[in-house]
C-alpha cells in the first residue's frame, strides 16, 4: 500500500486497512518497510485478488512493481518541520499525480525513485 505524502495516516484509514488484512491475510504488517510503504505479510494466493479489490474499494493506492517509478516520497515539510523552505508535500503529491501511470504500468528499463526534501538538511524522513 503506497504511503501518503509525509507519512500521515488517519486512524480511520489504519482501521480499514487492518480490518481488510485481518479478513484476507495474517494480520501482520510492516509499517514503512524499505520502500516506505505498508507491507502486508502472509496470505494465500487465492486471497490476493479479493484483498486487492477491498483495499481499492476503500480508496487505497496499491502501487506496482518491476521496472517502474517507485512511490515518490517526501519529508514532513511545513506540516511539522520548522526548517522547511518549500512545500514538499504539495510537490510530492503533484509528482505522484503526474506520473501515476508510470507507478502502475512499467515502461522504463529500470526502476527509479523520486524524493522531495523541503530544506537543505535532506533528512532521513524523505
Please write the CATH class name of the largest domain.
Alpha Beta
Order of SSEs: HEEHEHHE
- Poorly predicted tracts of residues: none
Percent of residues in helical segments? 25-40%
Number of strands: 4
* Arrangement of strands in the largest sheet: 1-2
Q: Indicate the overall shape.
A: globular
Number of domains: 2
Q: How many H/I helical runs?
A: 4
Largest sheet: 2 strands, antiparallel
Give the N-to-C terminal Cα separation.
17 Å
| CATH architecture annotation of the largest domain | 2-Layer Sandwich
User: Given the helix and strand composition, which structural class is it?
Assistant: alpha+beta
Q: What number is the mean pLDDT?
A: 81
CATH topology of the largest domain: Alpha-Beta Plaits
Portion of residues in beta strands equals: 5-15%
Radius of gyration: 15 Å
Task: Report what the structure shows.
The protein has helices at 11-24, 45-57, 88-98, 100-104, and strands at 28-31, 38-41, 73-74, 115-116. With 126 residues, it is an alpha+beta fold. It has two domains: 5-57, Alpha-Beta Plaits (2-Layer Sandwich), CATH 3.30.70; 73-116, no CATH class. Strands 1-2 form a two-stranded antiparallel ribbon. Helix 1 (11-24) packs antiparallel against helix 2. The two termini are 17 Å apart. The model has no long low-confidence stretch (mean pLDDT 81).
Amino acid at each position: 500500500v503506497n504511503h501518503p505524502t509525509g507519512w500521515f495516516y488517519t486512524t480511520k484509514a489504519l482501521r480499514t486497512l487492518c480490518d481488510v488484512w485481518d479478513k484476507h491475510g495474517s494480520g501482520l504488517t510492516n509499517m514503512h518497510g524499505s520502500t516506505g510503504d505498508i507491507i502486508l505479510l502472509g496470505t494465500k494466493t487465492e486471497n490476493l485478488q479479493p484483498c486487492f479489490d477491498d483495499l481499492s474499494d476503500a480508496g487505497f493506492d496499491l502501487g506496482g512493481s518491476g521496472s517502474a517509478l517507485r512511490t515518490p516520497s517526501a519529508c514532513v515539510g511545513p506540516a511539522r518541520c520548522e526548517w522547511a523552505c518549500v512545500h514538499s508535500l504539495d510537490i510530492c503529491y503533484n509528482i505522484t499525480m503526474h506520473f501515476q501511470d508510470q507507478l502502475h504500468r512499467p515502461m522504463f528499463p529500470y526502476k527509479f525513485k523520486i524524493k522531495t526534501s523541503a530544506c537543505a538538511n535532506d533528512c532521513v524522513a524523505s
